[in-house]
Amino acid sequence: MEKGICLLACVPIRKEGGSIYEMVSQLLYGETYTIIEKQNGWLKIECDYDNYQGWISANQHSTNYAGLSYKGICKNLIEQIDINNNTINITAGASVERNIYELTWENIYTQTSLYMNAPYLWGGRSPFGIDCSGFTQVIYKSVGIKLLRDAELQATQGETIDFASTAKLGDLAFFDNAEGKIIHVGMVWVDEQIIHAHGKVRIDKFDQQGIYNIDTNSYSHKLRIIKRFF
Question: Quick one: 105 exposed, middle or buried, by C-beta within 10 A (0-12, 13-18, 19+)?
């Protein structure tokens, strides 16, 4: 099947083939995909990184990646790179020709700091707009751990932790709605806190009940399950 690569800072992935449809995710620079359908200038793709499916504009499709080996992660908020005689701005989380970070807390601290106060954006995966599962996915990508795209899919991965009191830095906490559907995810932080994308990437209090919003002085999310990945 035909392959492609993202050679722009980011490319929106939409629910259906058309610019009027909602963005459900993004390709970041250097990420590859497989084309599974073509329709009226739009391509239905499956992302190689997480097998997520959606539609991109054919105008933003590229196959020109012969000889490139994107096995590392951009560690800076923005970088300028030159490829095929073009200068491209890329963001944190992009795939580059470098070694993947070692799995260390320092690296996790460094990467999360790039996303603090980033505005919430449904389907976003960059420091300039990101959703809750996009945030956890790109942070884990920076230390070489693959997560699926959506919160409810990420909740199927990892090892279950029974209590918030035993959670450690880097564990993922998942939250559900009144119908029991997992709708939110955040990363356990230090001092009984959690970092998550809710309005913006922020740090709030966290306990067995859920997320306690420090601005509204109320619980914003109900805890469903905690997972450990390393």
Answer: exposed
User: In angstroms, rounded to a whole number, what is the distance separating the alpha carbons of residues 47 and 147?
Assistant: 13
CATH code for the domain defined by 105-228: 3.90.1720.10
Q: Give the pTM.
A: 0.93
- pLDDT at position 66, please? 56
Apex 149 CA angle, 76 and 230, nearest 5? 70
Residue 175: burial class (beta carbons within 10 Å; 0-12, 13-18, 19+): buried
221 within 8 A of 177, measured Cβ to Cβ: no
Fold of 1-100: SH3 type barrels. (2.30.30)
CB 210 within 8 A of CB 224: no
8 A C-beta contact, residue 156 and residue 225: no
Distance CA 99, CA 216 (A): 42
Q: CB under 8 Å to 10, separation ≥6 — which residues?
A: 26, 27, 28, 29, 91, 125, 126
The residue among 81 and 211 whose pLDDT is bigger is 211
